[in-house]
Write a structure and sequence with these properties.
This protein is mostly beta strands. The protein has a single domain, classed as Thrombin, subunit H. The protein contains no helices and 7 strands.
């Protein structure tokens, strides 16, 4: 079977966080929990991570950086819309990229997934 060539290398390790909603003080808030294996250790997956820069803009007097990237990884049915990923080398749990839209199963072959991610960072 021929391998797809959308992201050949897949050398960037990442963690996947499943997204759920919790009602806190009457407000729905998104909560991310890390995907673990049977030994309660985080599952490391590999991808091709391509950034295309970001946008800087001011929102209520605060400069906000909106980073976007495309991700190509091996197929995993656990990766769904509403989740998030964290690159393993960042080491900061607040450094999550949210998955935008539904991940695409390339050619419906259950070999590779591609999806877009977005991260917001703000500072004073």
């Amino acid at each position: 079977m021929q391998r797809l060539s959308k992201g050949n290398q897949k050398t960037t390790p990442f963690y996947y966080y499943a997204g759920t909603y919790e009602k806190i003080n009457g407000v729905n808030k998104r909560v991310f929990t890390i995907d673990t294996d049977n030994d309660n250790k985080p599952v490391v997956r590999f991808c091709n991570f391509s950034t295309y820069g970001g946008n800087e803009y001011e929102n209520n007097g605060v400069i906000v950086v909106d980073d976007t990237a495309n991700v190509v990884c091996w197929f995993d049915p656990a990766i769904t819309a509403g989740g998030a990923i964290q690159l393993c080398d960042s080491g900061v749990e607040s450094d999550l990229f949210e998955i935008l839209g539904q991940p695409e199963n390339i050619e419906m072959r259950n070999q590779e997934l591609t999806f877009k991610v977005r991260r917001f960072k703000g500072g004073a």
